[in-house]
Amino acid sequence: MVELSTIARPYAEAAFEVAKTSNLNQWSDWLESWSAVASNDDIKLLVSNPKLTDEQVLKVFTELTKTPAEAQATNFLSALVENGRLLALPEIARQFEELKNSHEGTADAVIASAFPMSEAEVQNVRGALEKKFGSKLNVTVQVDESLIGGVCVTVGDQILDSSVRGKLNAMKAALTA
């Protein structure tokens, strides 16, 4: 079976090329909104219903997502429906964001902390991470009490774990090896 990322790649690239000539942030918002609706179980049933035509599926989807009347947006969704790829929208949106971040010289970073962080703490961590990765970071902070203490940072496919839980797991692995 073909990987979802392989299916989504040409659509993400096409959306990115169109968005570069118009509005990257608007396309990013649309894709996020569309992917949230496409992830809904009822929508998954609707899309897979063989009794509905592509036009009916597109009409319901555009009404639910309040898709703008812009031809490019409607054409993009129409292509997804016609090719049976509407449910790939979450992966398309993810890949689009990667392309957008690369184009803008930014990256997404998730900071998981055992405790809520003040804005000053977030800015300190952001500054250190931007130095380390050499790019501007879009930071999201999450509280994860299971970390016990410290933080665990994810930037792209890299994970920096300086949490107490991570250190305990490393010690356990060293002792049992």
Automatic annotation (TrEMBL):
Coiled coil: none annotated. The keyword Signal does not apply. It comes from Limnobacter parvus. Transmembrane segments: none annotated. Its main location: membrane. The keyword Iron does not apply. This is ATP synthase subunit delta. It is a peripheral membrane protein.
